[in-house]
């Protein structure tokens, strides 16, 4: 049976926040041009996106706690809050939930203390994204054989790489690119930044595909189950949108980014005439919309019994 819309919506929110965290870590460490003085003050939207990410992961995590508590205690969702302390104190899920909440609390304190984060804080965001992805895997279908089993580790890599892939698109399209247009940033750093995004996205995609094949083999069980079970059909739907995002990434890498690089080389137009960057930003926003649909599919899969378990 397909999961309910409410459960899917809140898990999607949780994954969206995790993707933003991963993308922001990448943006702060690799995607913002290094040649710009006071680089983080030059991209104020990244701080706003960081706050949105923290809120999304916290709200999604609270609802997931209530949903798991209701399932464990066999209670309606509206009554589950009474059993939350027992679940937190007496279950492996509670331990991992406390871990992810502690990570979020540390990130919140760092965000409130440093609005323009120094290098250690930027690295902490990237590490936090991996830790939260680990807790997602350890408490999901992949963690049923233990949080450090091969499937759980593979799924942690899959979730981390997938969130990095899409999160970079979100962070760049809505946090980086808007502040590089109109001549605010010289053309050469713009081209370098776009190339870094394309290269890192390609590496993340390679990890997504490798771990996704293994996960599907373990959780689907057979080729026939892809179209005879709810889990398999949801997976096929997700793969359809993944293929769409891959196609957009292919176009960006071999057409959009080279156009930006050609624009950046002298003799080039005035920095304000940044039509290639504007087209790249629009493509990334369309890519981001596809990624949000992929997150919905992933959330639904997380709340659906794997075909191999039926």
Brief summary:
This protein has about 300 residues and is mainly α. Helix content is about 75%, strand content about 0%.
State the share of residues found in helices, binned by percent. Answer: over 70%
Distance from first to last alpha carbon: 11 Å
The overall average pLDDT, rounded, is 86
Task: Give unreliable regions as ranges.
Answer: none
Number of E-type strands:
0
Q: How large is the radius of gyration?
A: 20 Å
C-alpha geometry: globular
Strand content of the residues, in percent?
Answer: under 5%
Number of H/I helices: 10
* Order of SSEs: HHHHHHHHHH
Largest sheet data: none
Class of secondary structure makeup: mainly alpha
What secondary-structure arrangement, pairings included, does this model have?
Blueprint: H1 5-31, H2 45-73, H3 84-90, H4 92-113, H5 119-138, H6 150-176, H7 187-220, H8 225-228, H9 230-264, H10 275-302
Would you give an account of this structure?
The structure is a single chain. This protein has 310 residues and is mostly helical. 75% of the residues lie in helices and 0% in strands. It has 10 helices and no strands. The chain is globular. The relative contact order is 0.14. The model has no long low-confidence stretch (mean pLDDT 86).
Keywords:
75% helix; 310 residues; single chain; mainly alpha; 10 helices
